[in-house]
Write a structure and sequence with these properties.
about 375 residues, alpha/beta, about 45% helix, about 15% strand, globular
Length: about 375
């Protein structure tokens, strides 16, 4: 495993700094997806955080391990390459993930090529949405060409992968009532014909346009994730960065299933301590779901906002040192906040010593998770 990566991970592990940032860089999107949890905020013409403000944010986060650029469709932000360079240079961020609907193949591929020119140590992951067979995917995404375009984007990115070891092209599938009966066969299809470097299945969120999309039982969720882990996540034999990631993904699935089955707290949530979300208007939150969880008794989402990054000249830690921030973090800890948010679960497993030790031993010695 790359020594630089290990050193960066150790720095993150033993500092109290923010390590994981989900950044909504645009609210523009060309699709109207049935399972979109953010649809009411899309294409509103809101002024997004400027590149000048983003530079200040990047300088205020010197030890940022992982950055997710999302939206909207993130590749519709014209200066996405510049945003990544700012975080790479100023925040020492070498892990970047960009989820995309995969519709605009030429734009995605050309921008990916320019991003890869940043530095060979930058690890870039592009996750393309693919929600099932062509008819199902197009219905969920609201466009008759969506499946064809996503497949074409994946193929073009896989060509780039062959020449860039630091690029990973993965697939993200949203699990919902619309596609659940097709997904086991779809997993076999993906493995046999697409062969992505990574593949994950995420649950449809609560705040979606049709509640029918979330109608997935625990048994259905478990059945599909077990197939995913057994079919797709065959681990490399030699200890490596990839094997460690595979172990972390499988362990996270285990925690998510337990949370979903028992509907209760499983491990400490580090949202607001190690992870933050910045929305396109500058609002900073601990995570994407905290204001939408039923077990918080209907507390308004705005009550969990740390404030606006534009009001503190990009200095996130000014927001995190306020009385308001202390009260929010205390609420998360005292109420043992829990959810099925995959990003938060992964972060909590990684930075929880008891849990990460199991992940590490599994990757090193193939011990039981």
């Amino acid at each position: 495993m790359n020594k630089y990566i290990i050193c960066q991970w150790l720095k993150q592990y033993f500092t109290g700094k923010i390590s994981y940032l989900i950044f909504y860089i645009t609210n523009r999107c060309n699709l109207k997806c049935g399972a979109c949890f953010y649809s009411e905020h899309l294409n509103k013409g809101i002024n997004c955080v400027s590149i000048a403000e983003i530079e200040k944010i990047s300088k205020a986060l010197p030890y940022l391990l992982h950055l997710i650029l999302t939206g909207g469709e993130p590749f519709l932000r014209e200066d996405i390459e510049e945003i990544i360079k700012l975080f790479f240079v100023n925040s020492n961020t070498f892990n970047i993930t960009i989820p995309t609907n995969g519709f605009f193949t030429d734009i995605i591929v050309s921008k990916t090529k320019r991003i890869l020119e940043t530095d060979n140590s930058l690890r870039l992951r592009i996750n393309v949405s693919l929600d099932g067979p062509e008819e199902i995917h197009n219905r969920m995404r609201g466009h008759h060409s969506s499946f064809k375009n996503s497949i074409n984007t994946i193929k073009q990115l896989q060509i780039l992968e062959k020449h860039h070891e630091n690029l990973t092209c993965g697939i993200n599938t949203v699990l919902s009532d619309f596609n659940k009966e097709y997904l086991v066969d779809f997993i076999y299809f993906v493995r046999s014909f697409i062969k992505p470097s990574d593949f994950d299945i995420i649950l449809a969120r609560n705040n979606i346009k049709s509640q029918r999309t979330r109608n997935v039982t625990f048994e259905e969720y478990e059945f599909i994730l077990r197939h995913l882990d057994n079919i797709i996540f065959a681990q490399p034999e030699v200890f490596s960065h990839k094997k460690l990631i595979r172990s972390l993904e499988k362990y996270t699935h285990k925690i998510l299933l337990k949370t979903y089955a028992e509907n209760k707290y499983q491990l400490p949530c580090l949202a607001g301590r190690k992870m933050l979300v910045i929305y396109e208007n500058g609002i900073v939150m601990p995570c994407e779901l905290i204001g939408k969880l039923e077990h918080h008794g209907g507390i308004p989402e705005e009550d969990f906002s740390f404030g606006n990054i534009n009001d503190v000249n990009g200095d996130i830690y000014k927001l995190l040192k306020t009385k308001r921030a202390a009260e929010i973090l205390k609420f998360i800890k005292d109420n043992k906040c829990y959810c099925s948010f995959e990003c938060a679960a992964t972060l909590n497993c990684f930075f929880g010593p008891e849990h990460f030790s199991r992940v590490f031993l599994n990757a090193l010695f193939s011990t039981k998770l």
